[in-house]
Specification:
Elements lengths: L7 E5 L16 E2 L2 E2 H8 L5 E5 L10 E3 L8 H9 L6 E6 L7 H10 L4 E5 L5 E9 H8 L8 H4 L5 E4 L17 H13 L3
Parallel strand pairs: 1-4, 1-6, 4-5, 7-9
Antiparallel strand pairs: 2-3, 6-8, 7-8
Helix pairs in contact: 2-4
């Protein structure tokens, strides 16, 4: 088994969740845990775990920080999270991924060759908040407060590989997020059918 370098994890858990009535998305439950708990479980082996967002409940040992300005978007949030990262490799996840797994994060870590590697969904769309990166490259991409506010634009100059994880028939993809009441309901219905 390939020995992988240590890594940190930054989980972006901000946003207004306007389509969910303003409720704080990462703290909503899917199955027997909150979505933020699912994301943090997927990176349980990280050297450090950082959650970026408003004050909220996080497990002991997890650093909670806030972007500047508060509500400033994912680029500002990532910049704030990276300030607490000391490893050369960092996983970046959205806080509303109830089906992300540690095995997927491990596969992304194994595939990291250049500046970053991210998941591509079944429609071919980059999932920029589900990837593993060289910390220094990511800091350069988002370090300028006057730079692009859109994350995909900020990352556009990096050398990025893409990975489309296989999704067995009948299983839910790890990139499924919960932006709308319908997506949240679907995630909860899937979780209710999961064994155990």
């Amino acid at each position: 088994m390939q020995e992988l370098p240590p890594y940190s994890a930054v989980v972006l858990a901000g946003g207004r969740a306007a389509r969910l009535g303003g409720r704080h998305k990462p703290q909503l439950r899917v199955g027997d845990r909150t979505m933020i708990a699912a994301a943090l479980a997927a990176v349980a082996d990280a050297s450090s775990r950082v959650v970026v967002g408003p004050p909220q409940e996080v497990p002991a040992g997890v650093t909670l920080t806030r972007e500047d300005p508060p509500g400033g978007g994912p680029v500002a949030a990532l910049r704030a999270g990276l300030a607490a990262v000391e490893t050369d490799v960092v996983a970046v996840l959205a806080g509303d991924l109830p089906f992300v797994t540690g095995s997927l994060i491990g596969e992304l870590r194994r595939r990291l060759q250049r500046d970053g590697v991210l998941v591509v969904d079944d429609s071919g769309r980059d999932q920029v908040l589900l990837g593993v990166w060289r910390s220094a490259a990511l800091r350069r991409a988002v370090g300028d407060p006057a730079g692009p506010r859109a994350l995909f634009r900020a990352l556009s100059g990096l050398a990025v590989d893409r990975y489309r994880p296989p999704v067995p028939p009948g299983e839910v993809p790890p990139w499924l997020d919960c932006d709308t009441p319908e997506e949240l309901a679907r995630a909860r219905e899937v979780a209710s059918r999961a064994p155990g």
